[in-house]
Design goal:
The protein has 93 residues and is of the alpha+beta class. The protein has 3 helices and 6 strands, in the order E-E-H-E-H-E-E-E-H. The longest helix has 11 residues. The chain is flat, with a radius of gyration of 15 Å. The mean pLDDT is 88.
């Protein structure tokens, strides 16, 4: 159950098999950042379910970090405040 704007919603979600193993492995190798267009209140409740000890993500970015564009939310990687050249180069390893 999630509270948004004074209303309570029941949210159903499924966790992919081996998700926690995958996140544990990735976070042991590099910085894992969550960037979602979802609202913080919603995303944090889901994250608490599969990462109750806050061990996988080094940073979290939500809808308020996105740029509204044509009715959508665009994730601007500059908001990460990381060296994007290094980030992109690392993703090909």
């Amino acid at each position: 159950s999630i509270e948004l704007d004074g209303h309570s919603f029941t949210v159903w979600a499924r966790e992919r098999p081996y998700l926690r193993d995958f996140l544990k492995y990735c976070s042991s190798l590099c910085e894992v950042i969550l960037f979602t267009a979802s609202r913080r209140e919603y995303a944090d409740e889901l994250i608490k379910y599969f990462d109750p000890n806050d061990e996988f993500f080094s940073a979290r970015f939500y809808r308020d970090s996105c740029t509204p564009m044509n009715g959508n939310y665009v994730k601007d990687l500059n908001r990460l405040q990381r060296d994007l050249v290094r980030l992109l180069r690392s993703s090909h390893v």
